[in-house]
């Protein structure tokens, strides 16, 4: 485990990430991934794509990051995507009021507490501005919308927003995506891309930033019929921390299998449980320490405006539990909203096994009566009669039926409506699918994998820091060194590099400084294997231990144990690929 400072220092020195625009003083909440970080991030995204898109048979899309205002009116982000802002009356600095409460009291998840109560807590605990120490009691808390606003084209007639979640880019294309899926539920659509939130106080390095990468899956299901193939993850275990236990005095997370939490109703939606199982395996595969990991259910006041239930994957980092990903049951919230705000239908046609015969109430209003009677409102009265017949046929039982148009009641003789009931055969119905959403933050996953894989020890009397990153995501898979760049060893090593790169491995070549130093450099960026070309490789029995020459073999050194084995050069591409992909272990060599 690192302390946060060591990791941030290593991250900058070794090219993982750094605060961007440093030449201009840096800008809070924006980070640039250096060469090691960009490679690690890409590898993490690739493993996510493999697990959540390819292996699950989902479709991936890539939508714009700027979207027009109506999208966010419909989604609820314009009205409801707010954080609690409190401004210091003295220094003018803005802070997140709920974070000030959490940081200075034993209260957790203050985000779920109503604004008025947070104001009271600030007064009760006499909380002060973290920047200048001035008391904040009595300061009003404002709702601060987190979206970055922009204009689409010149002028301000068409406001747009940088998307605060990638999800909306999927929802708004639902009618077309459903066609690609041949209107067959369930189907899933994934997206990896940037999201933007104008966080009030970005903090903890990559953990709360203003531009970050989300990897999201929107799974569209028929809530009446579709069930996940739970067996695939039924035996996966994890610590679960349900809302009820968080609210209980001595409540603690407890270990259970996915099967158990479904059978016991702890996780109410089997689809959510299924993806918790998938995600647990995925987080483990990228280097998150499972002893510092748990699933926590949202408290009711904490849930986003769209979520009917939500569980977070959380990891312990620097003594705090941070949210790595959210698993929300969004029900039909988003599709219904876009259906009513846009001109398109956000439903799928669900075919019945057998056609069914139903009775349907119909009207055929006599317009020669409605026209003179209701003038310009006649058409609206006719529409209202039609809707009422469908909704409440009993309303036509008397001699007169009353409908409301623009707040005004209109009485119509039933005989003028031509009300009737007919039998129709229906082959199916339009339904609005429900949405299951595993939404993972890549930056937080990356930071956590780095934090959890950071180690320090001593090798040959020298201190070393190293990263135990899994080979599948390490920025570089192999470091190749000549013992020295002379007597043909450099040329030989460079040929090995070409060979390994040709096999698709991420390779770095290093011939500068003592060999021990070169190993340390690779250890620090988490390179799992190093290959050294020495005199024995060249067929010359000149190594220090007096071992017999082993022509065309090299040493392969494993990072964590520093153990070394000799491997024929001809076998290297296959061996190292198998080691990277987890098909062989170093002990097997
Ligand atoms: N579509 C659902 C959604 O956006 P969220 O819980 O707000 O849900 C999902 O975000 C994930 O995105 C979080 O679990 C977190 O990993 C990441 N995330 C959210 N805000 C972030 C921020 N300011 N900085 C870094 N990552 C963030």
From TrEMBL:
One of its GO terms (cellular component) is cytoplasm. CDD domains: GlyRS-like_core, GlyRS_anticodon. PROSITE patterns: AA_TRNA_LIGASE_II (PS50862). It comes from the Archaea. It is found in: Cytoplasm. Keywords: Aminoacyl-tRNA synthetase, ATP-binding, Ligase, Nucleotide-binding, Protein biosynthesis. Its EC number is 6.1.1.14. One of its GO terms (biological process) is glycyl-tRNA aminoacylation. GO terms for molecular function: ATP binding; glycine-tRNA ligase activity. The keyword Acetylation does not apply. Residues 580-589 have a biased composition (Basic and acidic residues). Residues 6-470 form the Aminoacyl-transfer RNA synthetases class-II family profile domain. It is an enzyme of class 6 (ligase). Residues 542-589 are annotated as: Disordered. Belongs to the class-II aminoacyl-tRNA synthetase family. This is glycine--tRNA ligase. It comes from Halomicrobium mukohataei. The gene is glyS.
């Amino acid at each position: 485990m690192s302390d946060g400072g060591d990791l941030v220092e290593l991250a900058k020195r070794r090219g993982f990430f750094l605060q961007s625009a440093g030449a201009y003083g840096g800008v809070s909440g924006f980070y640039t991934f250096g060469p090691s970080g960009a490679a690690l991030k890409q590898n993490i995204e690739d493993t996510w794509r493999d697990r959540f898109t390819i292996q699950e048979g989902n479709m991936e899309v890539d939508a714009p990051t700027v979207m027009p205002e109506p999208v966010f009116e419909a989604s609820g982000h314009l009205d409801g995507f707010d954080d609690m802002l409190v401004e210091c009356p003295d220094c003018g600095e803005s802070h997140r009021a709920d974070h000030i409460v959490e940081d200075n009291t034993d209260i957790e998840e203050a985000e779920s507490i109503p604004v008025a109560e947070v104001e009271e807590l600030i007064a009760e605990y006499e909380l002060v501005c973290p920047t200048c120490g001035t008391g904040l009691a009595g300061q009003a808390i404002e709702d601060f919308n987190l979206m970055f606003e922009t204009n689409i084209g010149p002028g301000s007639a068409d406001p747009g927003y940088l998307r605060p979640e990638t999800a909306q880019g999927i929802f708004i294309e639902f009618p077309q995506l459903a066609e690609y899926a041949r209107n067959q539920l369930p189907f899933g659509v994934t997206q990896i891309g940037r999201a933007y939130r104008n966080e009030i106080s970005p903090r903890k390095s990559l953990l709360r930033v203003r531009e970050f990468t989300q990897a999201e899956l929107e799974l569209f299901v028929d809530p009446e019929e579709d069930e996940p193939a739970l067996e695939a993850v039924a035996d996966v275990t994890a610590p679960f921390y349900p809302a009820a236990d968080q609210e209980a005095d001595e409540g603690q997370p407890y270990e259970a299998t996915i099967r158990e939490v479904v059978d016991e109703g702890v996780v109410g939606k089997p689809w959510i449980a299924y993806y918790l199982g998938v995600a647990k395996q995925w987080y483990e595969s990228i280097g998150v320490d499972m002893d510092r990991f748990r699933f926590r259910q949202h408290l009711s006041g904490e849930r986003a405006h769209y979520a009917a239930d939500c569980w977070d994957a959380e990891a312990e980092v620097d003594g705090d539990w941070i949210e790595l990903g959210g698993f929300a049951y969004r029900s039909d919230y988003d599709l219904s909203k876009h259906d009513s705000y846009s001109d398109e239908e956000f439903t799928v046609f669900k075919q019945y096994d057998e056609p069914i015969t139903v009775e349907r109430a119909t009207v055929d209003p006599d317009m020669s009566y409605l026209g003179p009677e209701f003038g310009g409102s006649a058409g609206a009265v006719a529409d209202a009669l039609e809707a009422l017949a469908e909704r409440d046929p009993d309303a036509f039982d008397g001699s007169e039926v009353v409908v409301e148009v623009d707040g005004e009641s209109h009485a119509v003789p039933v005989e003028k409506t031509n009300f009737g009931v007919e039998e129709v055969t229906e082959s199916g119905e339009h339904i609005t699918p429900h949405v299951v959403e595993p939404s993972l933050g890549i930056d937080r996953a990356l930071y956590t994998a780095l934090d959890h894989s950071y180690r320090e020890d001593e090798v040959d009397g020298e201190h070393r820091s190293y990263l135990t990153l899994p080979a599948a995501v390490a920025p570089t898979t192999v470091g190749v060194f000549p013992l020295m760049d002379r007597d043909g060893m450099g040329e030989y090593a460079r040929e090995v590099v070409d060979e390994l790169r040709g096999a698709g491995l991420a390779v770095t070549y290093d011939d500068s400084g003592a060999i021990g130093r070169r190993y340390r450099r690779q250890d620090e960026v988490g390179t799992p294997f190093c290959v050294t070309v020495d005199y024995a490789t060249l067929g010359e029995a000149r190594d220090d231990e007096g071992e017999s020459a082993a022509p065309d073999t090299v040493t392969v050194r494993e990072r964590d144990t520093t153990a070394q084995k000799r491997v024929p050069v001809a076998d290297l591409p296959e061996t190292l690929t198998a080691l990277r992909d987890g098909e062989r272990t170093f002990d097997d060599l």
